[in-house]
Design a protein that fits this description.
The chain contains 17 helices and 18 strands. It is of the alpha/beta class. Strand 2 and strand 3 form a beta hairpin. The chain has two domains: 327 residues, Zn peptidases (Aminopeptidase, 3-Layer(aba) Sandwich); 143 residues, Glucose Oxidase, domain 1 (3-Layer(bba) Sandwich).
Length: 537
């Protein structure tokens, strides 16, 4: 056995050396390698060989888009049988979890299911907002106001009292952020609060503690992009116990100048504390003190089956895990399927924040794959070095970005950075100081003319026109995007499973400036305005 392991390590080292050589290949050589990655289906027996699925060149060869699509069809079937979605804490999510679990167990993995507390939130109908005095008026749902996600249900009528507002362009509102803002607040009133400085949760809970029966938070109005409605949340742990609506800046500014204002507000939602689950499995082999984590969220939104978002990442990670069950990595690879990402990264946040310090030290890197099959796709790599968007990831993140970028260069495929905006499950790993990276093919944003020239596809159209919609089904997947990004995932994961030297070297180089790096990360986290798909402040 020792002789076999030695041979495998030698072969693995040679494979890594060969892979390293390809990164410096000429454009002509790169094209030849591009033809190699997935020209056709390899034999099943070849992809059971640890010498193929255990190398950065071999694993992508076995990562066939057709196999990932088969797994996506299974997730589609699950959604179709369970109300059209796979949302957290719903039957479709449990069935998805069961499918991933059974598949991994058949491949020889020991699977761990991690329960975590979760606040289920569902709008039942549109809200109501109307002025009762001094002049009766009705406001338009989804034009003048909307829900803040995770609001409590409620039907209240009361006088409106403004809380420390700062109107006008360029304002620096901190309305409702301090308990002192409510020193003269009359209990039983509806608080009118302006966005700015702190979280919506903090504002609403301060109002509730001061005796407010409801809250309307309106946009800040300091810049042009802070005037209208947006997708915002009070957070999974909101404990104010009162209804909270979100309004436009125009609505709030008008109300602030209206004496004697009384309003009627209704939030028609259901909210309850429950639990849902993450699923984690890891390779039997590899150094347990040098772990490479790979993750994707398994849940969908309630509006649809979530086949691109994020069946695509989940299915690709599952296919890779099955293939890697035959591999002999030097470093242990841990796979994770997160729950309740669509509710604010709840599952991954719980997992990473609950890790003991010594366990965090064992995780060398976290790779995140969220939406890798967008129909009008782009090739986006998280901007780990901060060169494009200014925010640098923890030490080692730049190395992961370079590794993924080298793969796209090898394939002669263009790629560009995507902002670290805390909209996916890497967020808590960032906060814990763990190096991270990953891929993304675009969501609701429009593809620019320049990007259309670079990646192909349609300019001035969304990367994914079915983002968070019922049409995010099996027909919403671009197989070319799925093949390319699944191969890139396999390349980077296999590379790091054999050696994390590129990350180790970057961490070592950063040690002399570690205090400054940590302060920079902490400041960046304090300024985070999004957590998952929602704005939090």
């Amino acid at each position: 056995m020792m002789k076999k392991n030695k041979v495998r390590r030698v072969v693995g080292s040679l494979a890594l050396a060969a892979s390293t050589a390809t990164l410096a290949a000429s454009p002509d050589d790169s094209q030849r390698f591009n033809d190699f990655w997935s020209p056709g289906k390899p034999s099943l027996s070849a992809c059971k060989s640890p010498l193929l699925v255990g190398t950065p060149l071999g694993l992508p060869r076995c990562m066939q888009a057709s196999n990932v699509l088969t797994r996506l069809q299974k997730l589609q079937d699950i959604a179709s049988l369970n109300g059209g979605n796979r949302a957290a804490a719903q039957p479709g999510y449990q069935a998805s979890l069961d499918y991933v679990r059974s598949t991994l167990e058949q491949a020889g993995y020991a699977v761990s299911i991690q329960a975590f507390p979760f606040t289920s939130y569902e709008p039942i109908g549109p809200g109501t907002l109307s002025a009762l005095a001094p002049v009766p008026a009705s406001y338009v749902w989804d034009e003048d106001f909307t829900y803040l996600s995770q609001t409590e249900a409620g039907d209240v009528s009361a006088a409106v009292v403004a809380v420390d507002l700062a109107l006008g362009a360029g304002n620096s509102s901190s309305s409702g952020c301090e308990v002192e803002d409510f020193a003269a607040f009359p209990s039983g009133s509806i608080a009118l609060i302006q966005r700015g400085a702190c979280s919506f949760q903090q504002k609403a809970e301060n109002a509730a503690a001061a005796g407010a029966v409801g809250v309307v938070i309106f946009n800040q109005g300091n810049t042009e992009d802070r005037l209208g409605l947006m997708n915002a949340t009070l957070g999974d742990t909101y404990a104010g116990g009162i209804p909270v609506l979100f309004g436009t800046y125009a609505l709030g500014a008008d109300w602030a100048q209206t004496a004697g204002l009384q309003v009627h507000m209704v939030a028609d939602v259901e909210r309850s504390r429950t639990e849902t689950h993450n699923l984690v499995a890891e390779t039997r082999r590899g150094n347990p003190n040098n772990v490479v984590m790979v993750g994707a969220h398994l849940d969908s939104v309630g509006e649809g089956p979530g086949i691109n978002d994020n069946g695509s990442g989940s299915a690709a990670v599952l296919e890779m895990a099955v293939l890697m069950s035959k591999a002999h990595p030097f470093n242990k690879v841990r796979f994770a399927w997160w729950g309740a990402e669509e509710s604010g990264l709840v599952g991954s946040t719980f997992y990473a924040s609950q890790l003991a310090d010594e366990e965090k030290q064992r995780i060398k890197a976290y790779l995140n794959f969220d939406m890798i099959g967008s129909p009008n796709f782009g090739n986006f790599i998280y901007d780990g070095d901060g060169s494009e968007f200014g925010l640098q990831g923890p030490p080692g993140s730049a190395a992961i970005e370079r590794l993924l970028g080298a793969y796209f260069n090898l394939r002669s495929k263009p790629a560009e950075g995507t902002e670290i905006d805390f909209r996916s499950d890497y967020a808590q790993f960032f906060e814990e100081g763990i190096a991270f990276g990953g891929l993304f093919t675009g969501a609701e944003d429009l593809k620019s003319e320049e990007q259309a020239q670079k990646f192909g596809g349609a300019a001035n159209q969304p990367f994914d026109p079915c983002y968070h919609a019922a049409c995010d089904d099996i027909g919403n997947i671009n197989s070319d995007s799925l093949e390319l990004h699944a191969d890139a995932m396999a390349f980077a994961t296999s590379w790091l499973s054999l050696s994390t030297k590129i990350i180790d070297d970057e961490i070592a180089a950063a040690e002399t400036a570690q205090q400054g790096q940590a302060m920079k990360r902490q400041q960046s986290v304090r300024n985070v305005e999004r957590w998952g798909r929602y704005f939090i402040k």
